Amino acid sequence: MPTPDFIVKRIQKAVARPENHRYPDYEGAAFLRKAVAKYYERRFGHKIDAEKEVLITIGSKEAIFHFPYAFLNRGDYAIVPDPGYPVYAISTNMIGGRVYKAPLLKENRFLIDFDRIPESISKGAKIIFVNYPNNPTGTVANDAFYRKLVGYARKYGLLIASDFAYSEVNFQEKKTPSMFDYDKDKQFSVEFHSLSKPFNMTGYRIGFVVSNPYIIDALKRLKTNMDSGAPTFIQEGAEEALLKGDRAIKKIVDVYKRRRDVVVKTLDRVGISYNYPEGTFYIWSEVPEGYNSISFVQTLMEKTGVIVTPGNGFGEYGDGYFRISTTITDKRLVEAMKRIEKFLS
Ligand SMILES: Cc1ncc(COP(=O)(O)O)c(C=O)c1O
């Protein structure tokens, strides 16, 4: 979907102003950090210090990738969800850290089961990555999960790196839980936010991180040596989105909800099991009898021209699943689902 018009217009004006052609403020412009604080209070009910507790990033991927560089030493473990967004494990591996894959299983509603993590790993770990609303499963974590998570992190002295890229793509009535509902003083949690998903701004590369001043400062020191910040005219667009974007978010999320319903109705008709998505724009589905992830995806592509993502691309525990993404137009989605239905019947 295109970026909402009011955001595009603000950026068009901003890019024409010569003062925006200079290097940006590395940690993010003060006006955007203030907008983040207002947005946070409005959407999540938490007061944050715009000066010390926010860092503007070049999308959330950049921030997530750099996070282990700031906090892991060689040999330290990061606990990452499997299936999961691949960047957590790749970044950890690239700096010589070790990865423990915490399985997200159907019987546990695709939530991490802390009791399954061996004591030796918990003791050797520094970071645990979590991502709810979850890519690829579509699960939104509940209160009980967050309480356990905080208890676990406190016990072993872990940093909780919460990938909150889909914070706004939540179909439930209740607001998406924030780490800071549970870790109220931001003692050991970090939230990674993205403007890509709620405002259709994937191509602009803009996001932000919220945490305590110590963590923000460490990430800032690393980042200012690696990049020079997000372009100021993009930051102006982000300010517009965060201050005035609530209606736009609702419109976008309604579209994904409508598309989710199109997909699940078809899957119900053809007897494919799936995790009913509480958020995100993905439908995590089980491959039919006689296939694995790869053979199913390949056959579907060859027979119907429809491409879905093989579950094992998200980790070994993703095998046996495929992921449908609803980021195409309604018309194309309906056509794709018709072809899938024909193929499977
Ligand atoms: C779980 C998850 N986290 C982070 C990102 C990165 O988003 P961005 O870098 O556009 O903010 C994505 C993108 O697909 C994602 O699925």
Brief rundown of the structure:
With about 350 residues, this protein is an alpha/beta fold. About 40% of the residues lie in helices and about 15% in strands. The structure holds pyridoxal-5'-phosphate.
How would you explain this protein's 3D organization?
This protein has helices at 5-15, 30-44, 59-71, 87-94, 119-124, 143-156, 213-224, 232-244, 246-270, 293-304, 330-344; strands at 54-57, 77-82, 98-103, 125-130, 159-163, 189-194, 207-210, 282-286, 309-310, 321-325. The chain has 345 residues and is an alpha/beta fold. The strands form 2 sheets. The chain has a 7-stranded mixed beta sheet with strand order 1-7-6-5-4-2-3, sandwiched between helices. Helix 1 packs antiparallel against helix 8 (232-244), helix 2 (30-44) runs parallel beside helix 8 (232-244) and helix 3 (59-71) packs across helix 7. The longest helix is centred in the last third of the chain and has 25 residues, at 246-270. The protein is globular, with a radius of gyration of 20 Å. The chain starts with a helix and ends with a helix. The relative contact order is 0.16. The protein binds pyridoxal-5'-phosphate.
Shape: globular
User: In terms of per-residue confidence, which ranges show pLDDT below 50 for 5 or more consecutive residues?
Assistant: none
> Helix-strand pattern, N to C?
HHEHEHEHEHEEEHHHEHEEH
The chain-level structural class is: alpha/beta
Bound molecules: pyridoxal-5'-phosphate
Would you report the number of β strands?
A: 10
Terminal CA distance: 31 Å
Binned, the helix content reads 40-55%
Number of helices: 11
Radius of gyration using CA atoms only:
20 Å
* Cross-sheet strand order for the largest sheet: 1-7-6-5-4-2-3
Percentage beta strand: 5-15%
Q: What does the average pLDDT come to?
A: 97
Largest sheet: 7 strands, mixed
